[in-house]
Amino acid sequence: MIEAIKGALLLTGSLFMLLAAVGLLRLPDLLTRMHATTKAAALGVILIMLAAAMHFSEVGVVARSFAVIVFILMTAPVAAHVIGRAGYFVGSRLWSGTVKDELRPNYDPLTHELKSGLETYENAKRQPRATDPD
Amino acid sequence: MDTVLLISQVIMGLALILTFVRVVRGPSLPDRVVALELFSTTVVGLVGVYAIQSGVASFLDAAIVIALMGFLAAIGFARFLERGGPRDD
């Protein structure tokens, strides 16, 4: 029973990694490629580490494979965010079928400034609160 | 069990080859960085499978270190890219 579950976990994990690689190869631009690799590859590593934990079934090894899982879950979104941000700022071209790019009207590539859309004269004035010291 | 291990290793080797095609072809530098990060993640999976195959649990420590290195490399590459300003490649 354990063997069957282990084999299923291994095969599913490696298939998800293959899926991530195929997505990286076939999708049209940087952001869609990142969307394929980050999630599918993280799921693949998680499944394989679960298989390793079931195979050894000792406390230390299970703790280590869970450490790998937690580490992947924490770092994959951060790395994807940082690379996506850098890729947008260095001007990588988006896919021609992109529907909406909300950053484009709010970001100035020359001054590297982001607008929040709230920069009116009304908001720029000082608005004292009742609790402020005089 | 040995057959399953071999099959999953072959599948992950195929994934490494496909990723390497993107590293070579990738039109811009961020694409290559994403491909290299996927490379390190796939290698973590391969090391996990090899730990099962050889029965040596210490390989999981190597997997942790490889994952850490991949993350730090991604962060460093992103800083480097962003510092460089707009590129045209």
TrEMBL record, chain A:
Segments crossing the lipid bilayer: 6-25, 37-56, 62-83
Taxonomic lineage from the root: Bacteria, Pseudomonadati, Pseudomonadota, Gammaproteobacteria, Oceanospirillales
Domain of life: Bacteria
Species whose genome carries this gene: Halomonas colorata
Name recorded for this polypeptide: Monovalent cation/H(+) antiporter subunit G
Pfam family, one: PhaG_MnhG_YufB
PANTHER family linked to this entry: ANTIPORTER SUBUNIT MNHG2-RELATED
Keywords in alphabetical order: Membrane, Transmembrane, Transmembrane helix
UniProtKB/TrEMBL annotation, chain B:
Species this chain originates from: Halomonas colorata
Location(s), subcellular: Cell membrane
InterPro entries: MrpF/PhaF-like (IPR007208)
Domain of life of the native organism: Bacteria
One Pfam match: MrpF_PhaF
Similarity comment: family membership: Belongs to the CPA3 antiporters (TC 2.A.63) subunit F family.
Lineage of the organism: Bacteria, Pseudomonadati, Pseudomonadota, Gammaproteobacteria, Oceanospirillales
Keywords: Antiport, Cell membrane, Ion transport, Membrane, Transmembrane, Transmembrane helix, Transport
Transmembrane parts of this sequence: 6-24, 33-53, 59-81
Membrane topology label: Multi-pass membrane protein
Protein name: Cation:proton antiporter
